[in-house]
Amino acid sequence: MTSAAKSSPNGGPAPQPDHLGHVIFITAAAAMGGFLFGYDSSVINGAVVAIKDRFDVGPEVLAQVIAAALIGCALGAATAGRIADRIGRIRCMQIASVLFTASALGSALPFALWDLATWRVIGGFAIGMASVIGPAYIAEVSPAAYRGRLASFQQAAIVIGIAVSQLVNWGILGLADGEQRGVIGGLEAWQWMLGVMVVPAVLYGLLSFVIPESPRFLISVGRTEQAKKVLSEVEGSQVDLDARAAEIEHAMRSEHKSTFRDLLGGRFLFLPIVWVGIGLSVFQQLVGINVIFYYSSSLWQSVGIDPTSSFLYSFTTSIINIIGTVIAMIFVDRIGRRPLALIGSVGMAISLGVAAWAFSYKEDIGGDISMPHTQATVALIAAHSFVLFFALSWGVVVWVLLGEMFPNRIRAAALGVAAAAQWVANWLITVTFPTLSDWDLSGAYVIYTVFAVLSIPFVLKWVPETKGKALEEMG
Predict the structure, then answer these.
(1) Is residue 98 located within the same domain as residue 183?
(2) pLDDT value at residue 17
(3) Neighbours of 206 (CB within 10 A)
(4) C-alpha span between 235 and 231 (Å, rounded)
(5) Residues 290 and 185 reside in one and the same domain
């Protein structure tokens, strides 16, 4: 079956249907890194209570173990770009696959708490690599006509990875009769939870052997003929391969490599737009979203909900997260970035405030923890509402804005600083929640509510609208 070539936005032909199927396969394979990003970030949720009991540690030490992965995330994200430029995108994916696999096995079979923390750091390094390499590779192999839609595969894969990790945890808990330390085949349930990630990690590695290297990297190392072959596979035979290769080479030569020094200026160290990027990243984390993804099972158990139900609720919040992400993908280009962020901020503030009210009814009578039925139901609804409003707004909008709002000359460096700020804020929330919840769970949610409220004037006063603007217009 033949069809006429369609025009892409840059004037070249879009791929024929047979090539589009191949591009989708390549993109989905690369997005497995995003799936593992979400899976590894969230799977610890099911093991928190068991790890605390197994190693007999307090909330402060437990928080450090949970947050250890974030150290690796920051290091992986900071170095992945240079590694990929030196040895290639595919080799970088393969390294990440090996690290994910090693982390899964090591975390499932730790002989001490520090050993578990070390494997968590290694897994975090792989997450950091995947968070950089996946989007970069997808952008480099995607035809311009489909780039936006294909780029969304990475975020979709992350939220699916989070949901699958919770579903797997719930299934394993069921096999262990609801006991996180119940024994299955010689290992405790929580060890299986952490070890099952070996399966997608190995699949990611295998897929990396059947997808092509990025044409951009191939041209950068002088393998132009091989790059042309890949371009013909992903953009179709109608493309002038010599012209496309020359276009990529010219673009690479004329690129300005932004540095940290380019970000400096003004009275407050950084340029104002850089501070806006940092603010977006920090607010995205300080509303407490990762409390849900890292601690929700232990959170619900801490207010008297049985373990099996708590794992089920962790899974349902992950499904809500997927739904919200799809909503954001549909509307981010229709109603704009700022309106969506404001809708999310208002919704999150209300949801968090209601959750704080409900958690204030938590009771501990002789070690028997409970909540009145009405308040427990309200807390569950509020938590799901919070995740929905986050996912349909800040979960997607922040990444869209960070990719669009910086001037070309500082984009790469500014993105690096904003991403670093996000990991730091993520770490801060992760390490403080166990202590805060032991002190006053309702008080912790009041703090998150305050940050959600503060995000509203921040968006209104400082965040620019980038909808419909070309990247070259960002000054």
Answers:
(1) yes
(2) 46
(3) 12
(4) 6
(5) no
